[in-house]
Structure formats: C-alpha cells, structure tokens
TrEMBL record:
Pfam family, one: adh_short
Family: Belongs to the short-chain dehydrogenases/reductases (SDR) family.
GO terms for MF: oxidoreductase activity
Identification of the protein by name: 3-hydroxyacyl-CoA dehydrogenase type-2
Keyword Hydrolase attached: no
Keyword Signal: no
Alphabetized UniProt keyword annotations: Oxidoreductase
Gene3D superfamilies found in the cross-reference section: NAD(P)-binding Rossmann-like Domain (3.40.50.720)
Record-linked PANTHER family: 17-BETA-HYDROXYSTEROID DEHYDROGENASE 14-RELATED, SHORT-CHAIN DEHYDROGENASE/REDUCTASE
Source organism superkingdom: Eukaryota
C-alpha cells in the first residue's frame, strides 16, 4: 500500500479548516492532487498539487468551477478518484453534499477501472448526533441522518459505475469550532462521556480512516462510527 495515494485525483469540500483541512494536508503529503472548496479556504497551500477555492457547495456554479480545475488539467488526467465531503453547516450538510455528489459522478466514473471493477470512492462525513441529538438539535440531527440514509442507496445506484460510497459518522474531534476558549466545561464532559480513549479525537485519526476507506475496495455502503465508543447521554 506504500504510496497508494500518489497521483490520485481528489476533491475535498470543507477543506478550509478542521477535518477537511486535515484531509487535504494528508492527501497532498502522500502525493495526491487535491482540489478543495470552502467558504473560507485555507491560505496555507502553496504547492502545485493543491488548489484551494472559495465557494459555496449549495451553489451549482461554484461546484462546477471546482470541477473544471480537474477537467482542465494539463496532464490530461481529468478524472476524479476520491471525493471527500467534510463541509459541516446545517444548511450545507444535505443539500451541499448531494449537489457535490451529483455533479461529481461523471468525473468519478471516468476514473480508470481496477482489476476488481472498482474505480473511485465517495466518502461523506456525518455525525453521531444523527442518532443522539439533544434538544434544540433537531435540524442538525436530521441532516446527519439524511447523509447516513443516502449511503447504501447511493452505493447500490453507483455500483455499475464502479463507484463506492461510505460515510464516517464522526464523534468529537479537536477542531477549531469545538476547541474555542469558552467550551472548557463541554470538553471536560465529552472526555468523561467517552469510554476509551477518554479524550477528543485527533484530526489525523479521522484522516487515517479516510485513507483506509480509499485503499480497501471491500468497504462500500457502510456508515462507520469513529467516536471512542461515546454515547451522548440525554441532558440532565
């Protein structure tokens, strides 16, 4: 599996911070060619194999502009091997995720066929709050559940194109949103509620699972919880 991601073509949404940024860094470090889109793109990428664009994945024209960066590559490798959806706002979650998938399918289907008939992979990100939302989180939990529910039907719909579909249902990770300075009490509660390891997840641990999904062709149609066995209790 050494350097198995080298020269892969990847499209990452939500790559401006948090888990999406970690995915971009990791894929680029392994030699993948990455296009990423975010409302606030990161300015850290200066390498030739990362293109960071500002855009809103609810807008079809913004997605198409990002996909053009893949279609117009000078080396002629104008297909897409990996799509990772990490954008995480309530209004973006379901509409944005579905839009990106819908518009990316033609490029994902152009990826070279491997010996077992697989071509490319879609990795969506949801949350454990799809199952364990608190009061006041109805809208957010509903969007996470919708992403989970799309996983198996999409995997079946796209099987004839050799496109796999999986979802990572993430627990609580060290992201800028969660690590804000006024969240000390919440962070302590999360650590106590997480059996093992009793801490927040690290972005690199999320990225490790992304890489495993890319590299393992039998992972398809799955919703994988990555949460240290935390089960979010009802508020007392």
């Amino acid at each position: 599996m050494l350097n198995s991601l080298r020269n892969l073509s990847a499209f990452v949404t939500g790559g401006g911070s948090g888990l999406g940024l970690a995915v971009c860094r990791h894929l680029a470090a392994l030699g993948a060619r990455v296009v990423t889109i975010d409302l606030k793109p990161s300015e850290e990428f200066q390498s030739d194999n990362v293109i960071a664009l500002k855009g809103d994945i609810r807008r079809e024209e913004d997605i198409q502009e990002a996909l053009k960066q893949i279609q117009n590559r000078e080396d002629g490798e104008n297909h897409l091997d990996v799509l990772v959806n990490c954008a995480d706002l309530v209004k973006i979650n379901i509409y944005g995720t579905f839009n990106v998938i819908r518009l990316s399918i033609p490029l994902l289907a152009k990826s070279p066929k491997k010996f077992d008939g697989t071509k490319s992979v879609i990795i969506n990100t949801s949350s454990i709050l799809a199952w364990e939302g608190h009061e006041g989180q109805c809208g957010y939990s509903a969007t996470q559940g919708a992403i989970n529910s799309m996983t198996l039907p999409l995997a079946r719909d796209l099987a004839h194109e050799g496109i796999r579909v999986n979802t990572i249902a993430a627990g609580f990770f060290e992201t800028p949103l969660l690590m804000r300075s006024n969240a000390t009490e919440l962070l302590d509660f999360i650590k106590c509620a997480t059996p093992c390891p009793s801490r927040l997840g690290k972005p690199e641990e999320f990225v490790q699972l992304v890489q495993a999904i890319i590299e393992n062709p039998m992972l398809n149609g799955e919703i994988i919880r990555l949460d240290g066995a935390v089960r979010w209790p009802e508020r007392g």
